[in-house]
Amino acid sequence: MKQNEDKIYDLAVLGCGSVGSAVGYYASRKGASILEIDSYQPPHDFGTHHGQTRIIRHAYGEGDKYVPLLLEAQSLWEELQDQTEEKFLHQVGIVNIAPQESDFYKNILSSAEKYRLPIDILTAVELNERFHTWNFDDDYKAIYEKNAGYLRTDIIIKEYLEKAKEYGATQAFNQQVSQIINEPDYIRIITDNAEYKARKLVVSAGSWVKSLYPDLPIQPVRKTFHWFEAEYENLLETKGFPCFTVNLKSNETYYGFPGSDNLIKIGRHDGGQDISNYQEQYEYDDDKDAKEVENLLGTYLIGTGKLDFGKTCSYDMSPDEDFIIDWLDDRTQIVTGLSGHGFKFVSVLGHILANRALGKEETNLDLSPFALDRFTKITEKVKD
Ligand SMILES: Cc1cc2nc3c(=O)[nH]c(=O)nc-3n(C[C@H](O)[C@H](O)[C@H](O)COP(=O)(O)OP(=O)(O)OC[C@H]3O[C@@H](n4cnc5c(N)ncnc54)[C@H](O)[C@@H]3O)c2cc1C
Q: Over the Cα atoms of the chain, what is R_g?
């Protein structure tokens, strides 16, 4: 028998992993009545946010339309860090290595120039001398951004959810939403064991949003990351090794984090396997999956040892790899298609979506590049 609540919440947040937990935090902080729903108890291993860490950088290879959001995100991360006991914001810097004629390199440079972000440009020789761990020839250059670094996802999501609860949010976890119905005066949200009512809704369901909105142009992709022994101590955070991205001329794209506990985490951004649900994400395979980063470790990055362990995760890819953030109607907002680069924006997206849902101050930050109607043929179907 389903539990059927009479209460009408000001706002329901469907999916409380990365963005959803931030929306719930900022909305409940404003004193609104908030319902947070998730299929699991976040943080968990079944979405897009696990694997401990995510890179944050501001000079942005994906385009300078992201930079104002990133700068606001950074100041919200700092504000949250000041109120949080455990350290989640590690400003260890980042080195972005790419051929200078690549779009990624040119975009980083132009966004740094436009927004006056502090960067150092290094030749391959200077890069190899400065960090002693790289082996690139003159065809490559590196852009070092000292204010970049990484975020600890598990600490952040726990913190957002605990604080939202303290502000009075109701948490309905371990229940999956199967249906959303627009009634004349409210939205009815049906899960496997309950029904809820809310005036506004934010859908932040990550890779699995298509079970609710099958026409959205989202492709979930299975991804892996790998923890290798750091044999060379210059790879460690304590020795000043930064985060990195590497774009090879072959278009292979890698990223990584400074080593801690003698392990260095490395991933590959391009590639992966298209999937349609969590079950297809299947377990990490030591022999097969680690091969994805073989070329980087064998040729360009010096000093890693044996594979210690790996994990699988998923990207929610949009067709152009830009975010989808929009109103579906005057009650429901959707955020998805973060395409493997969304975590660093979670603070600012949570803040904006919460304010918009509650009719509070509108933002000066421009979300128009992320509107669904850029995929004109699809928009009407999704919004119907
Ligand atoms: C391998 C990997 C590396 C990455 N590296 C970076 C990086 O370095 N920097 C960066 O900025 N970003 C990175 N990202 C991307 C970033 O992690 C994601 O963009 C971000 O976590 C997505 O957040 P989300 O809120 O959309 O999804 P999630 O955090 O997955 O949250 C979605 C939530 O919705 C819930 N849900 C789904 N369907 C339902 C339903 N029907 N009912 C109830 N609940 C539901 C899920 O259980 C989940 O908790 C990486 C991602 C991966 C996979």
A: 21
